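Protocol check, entry for the methods section draft. Step 1: assemble the input record (protein sequence plus ligand SMILES). Step 2: submit for complex structure prediction. Step 3: store the structure tokens unaltered in the notebook. Ligand used here: 2-acetamido-2-deoxy-beta-D-glucopyranose. Step 1 record:
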Amino acid sequence: MRFFSSLTLAGLASLVTTSVLAQAPFFGAPQSLAQVTVGEDVLVSVFQGASNSQFEDVAIALGISQCFTGADSCSGPGGGLVDVFYAGPFNATFVGTNRFQNFTVTIPSFYEPGQFAQVTAALFTLVGAEATPNLDTIAIVLQVI
Ligand SMILES: *[C@@H]1O[C@H](CO)[C@@H](O)[C@H](O)[C@H]1NC(C)=O
Ligand SMILES: *[C@@H]1O[C@H](CO)[C@@H](O)[C@H](O)[C@H]1NC(C)=O
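Step 3, stored output:
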């Protein structure tokens, strides 16, 4: 009896971990490798996926950076945000069980056609009954034409 109840507890603990991972944020817009022009205002829509655990959205920071030698030279989500275009509350709107917020980034005037650009978002949330701090960083690559 005792053995089975500790197995059940272990099972529950792994379920909770899975649901925390399953709520990673993603970009609803723009699409990966979307073509953008210098000076263009680009809609950046950040979604926080459905979660069956408790959460509290705290803050988000977004930046844009230049990739000088092709898409492969973009830093990915582990790099810096570089030109920060928003840092503040994540005030998401619910759509069904997803929640999202729109932002706008202007493609900097010094970017050059043929280059790639990366948009990076870092979202800070408190997850679960214990309000565990969680930072998710995601990145998307755009093509400057
Ligand atoms: C958050 O979003 C709601 C609904 O879109 C809006 O009414 C409210 O002013 C926003 N708050 C902040 C701090 O941006
Ligand atoms: C976010 O942008 C999309 C596309 O323009 C629009 O359909 C949606 O209503 C916007 N949502 C909010 C909350 O501003």
